[in-house]
Amino acid sequence: MIRAIIFDLDDTLYDEMQFVRGGFEAVSSYTSKNANVNQNVVYQLLLDVLEKHGRGQTFDIALKKLGLYNKNLIPKLVKVYRTHKPRLSLYSEVRTVLSTLRKQGYKLGLITDGNVEVQRNKVEALKIKDFFDCIIFSDEYGIEKQKPNPFPYQKALKELKASARETIYVGDNPYKDFVSAKRLGIHTVRIMRGQYKNVTLNKEFEAEYQIINLGELIDIVPQIKESNK
Question: What is the C-alpha separation between 38 and 17, in angstroms, rounded?
Fold first, then answer.
């Protein structure tokens, strides 16, 4: 029997690049006003740096390329990025899927890593709070509690009053989303989109099921129910 379904947020329910682009727009505007540099130039540079170097040092690298680097400026840009008011929209099928699952009687949970204020703002912008019986912001309990730490899964199971075998977890990131969930006995479904869509890891890190569109979950749940008998 399946009683609960837990979801990841970023790149599972919406395209996280929406948030990134919005943050870069805010940072570009701030930089332009304070350093007399073209906002569009800064914005495009941030995107280029992200694509080439990935996350972690985006602002440092971009400021150095612009000849504006100052280590004291980085925390200010990070704050601007994190506190901008995001304009986000769910993937087209998500609202229907969540609504359908609730109508079918499943308890729904959400687990998301990252700065708590940022993640709360995303949930608010997406207007999805009412779909979920529990929302776990893992960083609220310390960054060491982020996935793949088993803590957020265990807390969600407790709040949903469901056992691991009665629960499905849906995420996109094979590096951290599924390994602990599987060890706990939670069924796992990977949605193949976002920045990890072309990444394949060994069996330990991969989900039991793969889908392209969240709408496929409606058909996957009965299969998992049948295999759970």
Answer: 22
* Average model confidence (pLDDT) across the chain: 96
Q: Which two tokens stand for residue 62?
A: 């971009």
Q: For 22-40, give the DSSP string.
A: HHHHHHHHHHHHHHT--HH
* Domains in the chain with CATH codes: 4-15+89-227 (3.40.50.1000), 17-83 (1.10.150)
Q: What are the strands, taking DSSP E only, across the chain?
A: 4-7, 107-112, 134-137, 167-171, 187-191, 209-211
- Distance (Å, whole) CA 224 – CA 1: 9
User: What string of DSSP letters covers 192-228?
Assistant: --STTTT----GGGS-SEEESSGGGHHHHHHHHHHHT
**Which tens digit of pLDDT belongs to each residue from 58-104?**
999 999 999 999 999 999 999 999 999 999 999 999 999 999 999 99
| Cβ proximity of 169 and 153 under 8 Å | yes
Is residue 36 within 8 Å of residue 42, measured between CB atoms?
Answer: no
pLDDT at residue 7 greater than cutoff 90: yes
Question: At 198, is the pLDDT very low, low, confident or very high (cuts 50, 70, 90)?
Answer: very high
